[in-house]
Known about the structure:
With 342 residues, the chain is an alpha/beta fold. The protein has 10 helices and 16 strands. α6 packs parallel to α8 and α8 packs across α10.
Amino acid sequence: xxxxxxxxxxxxxxxxxxxxxxxxxxxxxxxxxxxxxxxxxxxxxxxxxxxxxxxxxxxxxxxxxxxxxxxxxxxxxxxxxxxxxxxxxxxxxxxxxxxxxxxxxxxxxxxxxxxxxxxxxxxxxxxxxxxxxxxxxxxxxxxxxxxxxxxxxxxxxxxxxxxxxxxxxxxxxxxxxxxxxxxxxxxxxxxxxxxxxxxxxxxxxxxxxxxxxxxxxxxxxxxxxxxxxxxxxxxxxxxxxxxxxxxxxxxxxxxxxxxxxxxxxxxxxxxxxxxxxxxxxxxxxxxxxxxxxxxxxxxxxxxxxxxxxxxxxxxxxxxxxxxxxxxxxxxxxxxxxxxxxx
Length: 342
Ligand code: UD1
């Protein structure tokens, strides 16, 4: 297929580009080379794909980029949790206005297939299992509790500790920060577009993606990159909360494979898939793994917290395996060793 990949110069985008090329697709990349991500200005061209430098919010640039393509993989976005409320307008503009512009242009040019990079953060705190009340949705964590070291969100009905239950794609959606809200809005715009145009949308709710090319040393860097950078400077990784918060770290090549499968298999309508390794780890465990791999100082558990953070983000990613045969191939240990060796 001839496809448009937005954000193809970004961390995940570059791996999606390689996967698309390996599978014989013809790719045009549209990337704005955002200065907060591409501090060196970014590349002037790409080896095996056409690069158009432009922003999806710019109608003329997007119309030009869509000319002659059959499908779009939309990865261009402002990522991360954000630094503070001053980031709100940029999330709304980059992610939501950008997606709205893209969808309108796609409708005009009759490009009917969209793969959307979404996120696990749309589930908020997800689902917990209360010994008394069964499956419950914990409310947002409150600052007073976090300040006194109470990191686990309690049962909203009786306050008891919860066991984790994995969320599937039908779990209630409950974004808890600006980024999560903007990702969910993208999904809703895309769903509406699919309904009105008969187009096909696959939203992929990525877990915590790591691997070669992770952005480093920016306020938007993921925790694996932050820890690796600290260890390279000879410093201990600083683990927030008590280190027992769980995430599903999924390798970027596995995510790229899932993204290309989604583009190839999309059918009219809207469908969302969770994309994770299937094996949750704690942040403390990941810090210890990287410290060992890099022969660096042991992690320090700081008790600090970020109010927008969700305690645990772990979901059931079996639907993508079951329905479309995707299998993650990179296990945690070798993936972290590869990151450490970079
Ligand atoms: C990450 C992604 C987000 C994605 C989501 C999907 C980044 C920046 N964010 O969010 O785009 O949608 O996964 O699941 O890649 N932490 C520390 N020490 C630090 C920094 C962070 O202990 O120095 C902890 C945080 O408190 C948090 C965990 O590490 O508990 C993960 O943080 P982070 O990598 O920022 O990712 P998420 O918020 O999970």
